[in-house]
Amino acid sequence: MKWDVGITLKIYLSGAIRGGRQLQKTYQIILDFLQKNNHEVLTHHVASQDVLEIENSLSEVDIFTKDENWLNECDCVIAEVSVPSLGVGYEIAYALCIKKPVMAIFGKKFEPISAMIAGNTSPLLVVEKYSSHSQLISFLAPFLDKIQSSTRIALE
Questions:
Q1: Residue 129 lies inside a defined structural domain of this protein
Q2: CA-based, 20 to 30 A from 75: which of 7, 124, 133, 148?
């Protein structure tokens, strides 16, 4: 039996882009944590200050196709849902439909969030409310550990 504690996960980081960039620094904190823990963040551009410029160089079809491919490839989705975003909601729904685990996190000061997220009882969806960046980070490790554990079992 092979037991690899450091399984690298492919993570789809989701956050508002066209819906509002006020949480860009929060996205960067999440990205930094994931990368420091040796995970591959397929959508690292979400945390970039220049993401709108990057996206403006692509067609709508190119963006959709690229994102759909990444969702199909990822092991899980981490979605910051404080800022209402059609794109983030779509990404969460798509991920759940293809049986990907999703963590939806939101800042306490942004309550209430959509009932379509808060009221979803899918066992694949974990919803957490944070009041500080350190609390946000504290929710990520157990979620990722659970996915790594199920990945280990699948490798055995």
A1: yes
A2: 133
137 assigned to some structural domain: yes
Domain of 89, in residue numbers? 10-155
pLDDT by residue (tens digit) across 56-112? 899 999 999 999 999 999 999 999 999 999 999 999 999 999 999 999 999 999 999
**CB contact at 8 A, 86 and 15:** no
Among residues 39, 70, 44, the alpha carbon closest in space to that of 145 is found at: 39
The pLDDT-based confidence of 149 (bands split at 50, 70, 90) is confident
Task: Quickly tell me which residue has 């779509």 as its tokens.
Answer: 90
Cβ distance 78 to 10 under 8 Å? Answer: no
| Whole-angstrom distance, CA of residue 140 vs CA of residue 121 | 19
Domains contained in the chain, number: 1
Q: What is the CATH number of the domain that holds 63?
A: 3.40.50.450
Q: Are the C-beta atoms of 19 and 87 separated by less than 8 Å?
A: yes
What pLDDT shows up at residue 3? Answer: 34
DSSP string of 70-101, one letter each residue: HHHH-SEEEEE-SS--HHHHHHHHHHHHTT--
pTM: 0.92
